[in-house]
Amino acid sequence: MLRLPVSQSNTPTTPIIVKCPTCKKEVEWGEQSPYRPFCTKRCQLIDLGEWAEEEKSIPGAPDLSDSDGWSDDMGY
User: Fold this and answer.
1) Among 12, 23, 46, 54, which residue has the fewest nearby CB atoms (within 10 Å)?
2) Residues comprising the binding site for Zn(2+)?
3) CATH, domain 17-56, list 3.40.1440.10, 3.30.50.10, 3.90.76.10, 3.30.70.890
4) Which residues line the annotated binding site?
5) Tens digit of pLDDT per residue, the chain (76 long)?
6) Cα(18)–Cα(36) distance, integer angstroms
7) Annotated Gene Ontology MF terms?
8) What local confidence, expressed as pLDDT, does residue 60 receive?
9) pLDDT at 13
């Protein structure tokens, strides 16, 4: 569970505000925002769909495939 920082008097400090990755609307990061970092379930599902359709990806090393001249065929 994420806890917001508290001051010496045990009162919450300024809430953390993040931008929704989908629509860029400001969202308070806390228990009252169940879809954080997204502002709504809709924005959360839009993001999930983009990952599922491979519109988003995590950069990494390129795949070596047959088109790159690599093959499982050893030529025996």
Assistant:
1) 54
2) 20, 23, 39, 43
3) 3.30.50.10
4) 20, 23, 39, 43
5) 556 555 555 556 788 999 999 999 999 999 999 999 999 999 999 999 999 999 998 888 876 665 655 556 665 5
6) 9
7) DNA topoisomerase type II (double strand cut, ATP-hydrolyzing) inhibitor activity; zinc ion binding
8) 87
9) 78
